[in-house]
């Protein structure tokens, strides 16, 4: 073993070990931690703090490389043979019911197990007193003294001799806890296992740790994972029962039908998990986070209140408020309440209340959850009434009220995970506002409605506006700029979702990194074939055109040298004078060029609007066709008008698209 270990270490350079400690350096490079509990266990290595790039590098370069799912266990065993000390170290064996100190006397590498014996003195901590020395010895005999390596936590040693052992076991433990799925081995394809499964799941794990994924989406992922594991276990049991029974009985047929049904359910859940694991598609998966948020309804007394939030209250400001906002002719006895910050005012609102926020810069640590029909109005220009988010959190504004209006405010978002404003239910009107975003901008969820008018939105690292299926979104005279994408429209072509209703008029969508407007939808098999054929055709045409151009250029150069041998002796000053003279003879030339340029720009913008409307309309038509087909299969030959008129309502007029990185409009297939 010593010779094999030296050969293995010589295969890897010293630089390869720089992130994980080196045997050539005296002393350990890892930290230590004190185990919890009442028993005085020795300290253990602190290895669960590794950074993303450390785990990424270990799995990609040293452990898994380009292996297939069926080869994972063998690759891990080969890695452990190179780095793991085969004996002579202690560890704490941890299970759900007990912890006990053991000594490692050998390693079964193919099985990923350690051969252990109880240490002296006997140290054990359990939930009850039944785990005595005799009981633990009997348990080890039943296991043939072999336990899984991932259940061991290596005892701390200052010499550094067991650093690689502790790190290797940590990598194995993390892999089987956070990366590996029981169904992975059955999903062989042309991609290696690291690219297909390890990297996206590893990124998701660290995105969750660093609060870059909404908490609601994390809960959904864990629930989906639990459901999938449970259903997959049932599927395996049914499949094994069919395999062990060769009879062609009625019970066998029933089991086959049940197995197919379970298989379809598992595949459906696996696709949802892959959507969340993929950072590009993560937010395509919609989740209902605030369905349980209840509205207060009308105030018990039936009265409506105006809530005033002053940064500083002066006599002149109070007189202006009283004259313009607080004392309308029809409501002389209207109740007025004063608050120190906008969040407290919104939390005090009932149905029909109004919040007036005076000029000032307000810092808020919390989420505005608006479940009633209330109105928030800034008293002044948006730049004078600023609400800035402080502290980490999922989002900033969550709207579920039937009719919410927000106007004359500037919202500034920091350290958020979700968008600056989420419309989950009901209608939200946003007018004359400025939104400085951090992640995504405004999200219009299924069955929600947004009316955004005369507002400015910028800075989103995702899309400025995300429009979900089954929603309604009206955008009038807005600026959406300096975002990852301008407007993102999601259409799933699924029977559970209606197409969104979209109106876009006179918006300026510019300086976005990607497209001005992008449609996200699943790709149909026919479209994938057509796209592949079109790509091949374009590539062939480009190659042919390049060759023709090269031949024509060579021909022109040859003919020019033969017919005009003295062309190179032309005086540059004479040519310049002639050009200048010809320009002076046509003074209206520059004006005409400018006019033609303006006409070309107008034509281009009109074409962009038409392109977006046509593409969204075509998607709507495809959705309607699928819907009609399903109705026909169910036996409905004549459908109700309301049922069949689920076309995407699209009005795209007068919008300007400028300086967007990928163009005005694009379609993203998944």
UniProtKB/TrEMBL annotation:
Occurrences of domain SHC SH2 (ranges): 54-282
Residue ranges, annotated region (Disordered): 1-28
Metal-binding in keyword set: no
GO cellular component: midbody; spindle
GO biological-process terms attached to the record: fibroblast growth factor receptor signaling pathway
Domain Right handed beta helix per the UniProt entry, residue ranges: 415-519
Location relative to the cell: Cytoplasm, Cytoskeleton, Spindle; Midbody
Pfam families: Beta_helix, SHCBP_N
InterPro entries recorded: Beta_helix, PbH1, Pectin_lyas_fold, Pectin_lyase_fold/virulence, SHCBP-like_N, SHCBP1-like
Keyword Repeat: yes
Keyword terms, alphabetized: Acetylation, Cytoplasm, Cytoskeleton, Phosphoprotein, Repeat
Domain of life according to the entry: Eukaryota
SMART domains tied to this protein: PbH1
Function: May play a role in signaling pathways governing cellular proliferation, cell growth and differentiation. May be a component of a novel signaling pathway downstream of Shc. Acts as a positive regulator of FGF signaling in neural progenitor cells.
Complexes and interactors: Interacts directly with isoform p52shc of SHC1 via its SH2 domain. Interacts with TRIM71; leading to enhanced SHCBP1 protein stability. Interacts with both members of the centralspindlin complex, KIF23 and RACGAP1.
Protein name, UniProt field: SHC SH2 domain-binding protein 1
Organism for this UniProt entry: Oxylabes madagascariensis
Lineage: Eukaryota, Metazoa, Chordata, Craniata, Vertebrata
């Amino acid at each position: 073993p010593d010779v094999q270990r030296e050969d293995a270490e010589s295969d890897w350079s010293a630089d390869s070990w720089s992130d994980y400690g080196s045997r050539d350096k005296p002393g350990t490079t890892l930290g230590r931690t004190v185990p919890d509990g009442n028993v005085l266990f020795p300290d253990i290595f602190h290895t669960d703090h590794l950074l993303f790039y450390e785990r990424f590098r270990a799995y990609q370069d040293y452990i898994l490389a380009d292996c297939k799912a069926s080869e994972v266990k063998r690759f891990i065993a080969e890695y452990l043979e190179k780095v793991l000390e085969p004996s002579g170290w202690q560890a704490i064996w941890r299970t759900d019911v007990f912890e006990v100190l053991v000594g490692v006397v050998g390693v079964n590498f193919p099985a990923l197990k350690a051969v252990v014996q109880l240490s002296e003195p006997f140290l054990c901590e359990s939930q009850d007193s039944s785990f005595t020395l005799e009981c633990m010895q009997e348990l080890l005999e039943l296991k043939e003294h072999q336990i899984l390596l991932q259940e061991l936590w290596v005892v701390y040693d200052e010499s550094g001799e067991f650093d690689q052992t502790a790190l290797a076991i940590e990598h194995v433990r993390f892999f089987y806890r956070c990366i590996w799925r029981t169904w992975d081995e059955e999903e062989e394809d042309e991609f290696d296992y690291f690219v297909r499964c390890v990297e996206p799941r590893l990124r998701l794990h660290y995105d969750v740790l660093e609060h870059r994924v909404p908490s609601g989406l994390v809960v959904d992922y864990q629930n989906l994972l639990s459901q999938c594991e449970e259903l997959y276990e049932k599927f395996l049991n049914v499949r094994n029962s069919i395999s062990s029974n060769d009879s062609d009985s009625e019970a066998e047929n029933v089991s086959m039908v049940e197995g197919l049904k379970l298989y379809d359910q598992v595949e459906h859940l696996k696709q949802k998990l892959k959507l969340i694991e993929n950072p590009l598609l993560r937010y395509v998966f919609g989740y209902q986070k605030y369905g349980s948020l209840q509205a207060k309804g009308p105030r018990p007394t039936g009265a409506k209140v105006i809530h005033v939030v002053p940064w500083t209250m002066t006599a002149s400001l109070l007189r202006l408020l009283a004259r313009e906002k607080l004392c309308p002719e029809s409501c002389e006895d209207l109740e007025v309440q004063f608050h120190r910050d906008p969040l407290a005012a919104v939390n005090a609102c009932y149905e029909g209340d109004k919040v007036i926020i005076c000029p000032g810069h307000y810092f808020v640590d919390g989420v505005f959850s608006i479940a009633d029909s209330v109105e928030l109005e800034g008293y002044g220009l948006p730049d004078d009434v600023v609400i800035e988010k402080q502290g980490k959190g999922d989002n900033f504004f969550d709207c579920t009220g039937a009719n919410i209006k927000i106007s004359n405010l500037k919202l500034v978002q920091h350290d958020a995970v979700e968008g600056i404003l989420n419309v989950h239910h009901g209608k939200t009107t946003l007018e004359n506002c400025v939104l400085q975003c951090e992640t995504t901008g405004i999200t219009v969820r299924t069955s929600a409605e947004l009316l955004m008018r005369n507002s400015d939105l910028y800075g989103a690292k995702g899309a400025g506006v995300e429009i979900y299926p089954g929603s309604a979104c009206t955008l009038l005279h807005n600026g959406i700029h300096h975002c990852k994408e301008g407007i993102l429209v999601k259409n799933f072509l699924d029977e559970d979702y209606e197409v969104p209703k979209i109106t876009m008029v006179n918006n300026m969508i510019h300086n976005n990194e990607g497209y001005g407007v992008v449609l996200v939808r699943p790709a149909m098999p026919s479209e994938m074939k057509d796209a592949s054929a079109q790509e091949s055709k374009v590539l062939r045409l480009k190659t042919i055109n390049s060759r023709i151009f090269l031949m024509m250029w060579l021909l022109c150069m040859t003919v020019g040298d033969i017919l005009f041998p003295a062309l190179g002796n032309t005086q540059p000053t004479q040519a310049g004078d002639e050009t200048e003279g010809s320009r002076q003879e046509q003074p209206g030339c520059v004006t005409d060029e400018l006019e033609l340029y303006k006409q070309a720009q107008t034509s281009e913008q009109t074409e962009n609007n038409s392109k977006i409307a046509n593409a969204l309309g075509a998607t709507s038509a495809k959705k309607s066709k699928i819907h009609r087909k399903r109705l026909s299969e169910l036996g409905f030959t004549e459908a109700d008008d309301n049922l069949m008129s689920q076309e995407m309502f699209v009005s795209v007029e007068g919008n300007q698209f400028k300086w967007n990185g990928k163009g005005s409009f694009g379609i993203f297939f998944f």
